Amino acid sequence: MRKRCWLFCFLFGLGCSATQRPDGGKGLLPAGAAAPAVTGKDDAGELVDLRKERGHLVLVFFYPKDGTPGCTREACALRDAWRDYERAGVEVLGVSSDSIESHRKFKAKHRLPFRLVSDEAGEWARAFGVGSLFGMYSRVSFLIGNDGRVLRVYPDVDPGVHAKDVLRDVHSLAGS
Questions:
Q1: Whether the predicted pLDDT of 10 surpasses 80
Q2: Which of 136, 151, 144, 58 is nearest to 102 (CA)?
Q3: Given 5, 16, 71, 76, which residue is catalytic?
Q4: What is the CATH number of the domain that holds 124?
């Protein structure tokens, strides 16, 4: 996604630069950094407070838009691997700028077992340093550890293999 963003920006003269985070950093929140203290509403209208997710692993995956082919493929791959994620103790949070209602429909249509956070104001994206183009977020994920620190950053996610890549890393971390 990032490569396509740069090409698009170059061709159409748009300014593509690293996202300025509220913590003063630029670009994606790096591995080792504390996960940001962000809140938002999920597809059920319930408050999601990332600080309250400490004590277990959390995968926060940013995606461009509900219902698009790549986003559907990524979300369904996570759904299909859900039992493995549960066994590994990993909470999954999908984040896009779509509305709660859009998330609700997307989740129901594809029987997604994890929460989708509506980030219409862009608070989560800015805090994680995730770029956007025309209001659609880059496809990037963050694996957050039990202590609330970022363990892994996954830029330029391939929707078809991402679910398995993360699980492989989770098992690798557990073995180390």
A1: no
A2: 136
A3: 71
A4: 3.40.30.10
